[in-house]
Write a structure and sequence with these properties.
By secondary structure, the protein is mostly helical. It is built from 5 helices and no strands.
Length: 96
């Protein structure tokens, strides 16, 4: 998960990239427990993908850390798309 977090935060200063795995894990945990149904669905979807993946880690388990969680490339690409989409929408809001 550390590599996935760094990949998603590529382009930011190195100190942020180094925190990428922890930030990603925290965000997914918050999403999986969100009161917003769409956000909760995404968080639970990513949780299930990781649980069924090679690490079999439960992202909601406090023992799971960015060092022992493996997230597959397809899920990383989905998360990158969501981050890019939000950045584009944010830019459009600022212009409008």
């Amino acid at each position: 998960m550390n590599d996935a977090g760094a990949l998603i935060l590529a382009g930011l200063p190195q100190q942020y990239q180094a925190l990428g795995g922890a930030v990603l894990l925290t965000d997914i945990r918050l999403a999986a427990q969100s009161a917003v149904p769409q956000v909760r669905l995404l968080g639970q979807f990513v949780r299930e993908r990781v649980l069924r993946g090679s690490s079999h880690a439960d992202l909601l388990d406090p023992k799971s850390t960015p060092d022992n969680v493996v997230i597959d490339l397809s899920t990383v690409q989905l998360l990158e798309w969501i981050v890019m989409r939000e950045a584009l929408f944010d830019s459009a809001r600022k212009l409008g």
